[in-house]
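Hi L.,

You mentioned the student needs an example of a multi-chain input paired with its predicted structure. This one should do, with 228 residues in total across all chains.
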Amino acid sequence: AQKITQTQPGMFVQEKEAVTLDCTYDTSDPSYGLFWYKQPSSGEMIFLIYQGSYDQQNATEGRYSLNFQKARKSANLVISASQLGDSAMYFCAMREGRGFQKLVFGTGTRLLVSP
Amino acid sequence: SQTIHQWPATLVQPVGSPLSLECTVEGTSNPNLYWYRQAAGRGLQLLFYSVGIGQISSEVPQNLSASRPQDRQFILSSKKLLLSDSGFYLCAWAQGIGHNEQFFGPGTRLTVL
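Structure written out for the whole complex:
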């Protein structure tokens, strides 16, 4: 079974609008972490935001927020006020357990922001 | 501050040739180190990870090997490249247990012809 599922291969949004990128995960470990990374066309992976399974509040980092719904096992990324520079691939990832940080990645969502 | 370097940035190699990709980290000590491969249009697949000098764990059986000769150096190698080894190779580092995010290098784009 897929550990991380990103069902949206591509998303379009207009500049200044908000967009939600979906991510669902599958784990039986009560302790886990969820990550979102951005990959622009240059290829490097840029860390955006982290949510721990025991965190009481949804994580936020500037224009990025994570809509964490534990019972539904979803960790959607919300980008507010989209900018042209947000056009990129976005990957959701999960680390199981509290120990060594092995990440499992989803297949990604390509976001295109139009003027 | 910490930085991670990878070289070369791009590489075109014939089938059957050897491979050596290098990754170095600056500004930290005893990092956990990782090699990932990303096939075109796909997510990242963890290939190897290392928690210390000489300690290598392999995630998937393959034509590649990894070594960590120094604390902040991680090398990905192959004796004979296959066409299927083509892809984008990313090195990453993370601080020890209790820290969360992994930080990635700029990557090496490998084309095997």
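You could point out the following to them. The mean pLDDT of chain B is 91. The two ends of chain B are 38 Å apart (CA to CA).

Best wishes,
N.
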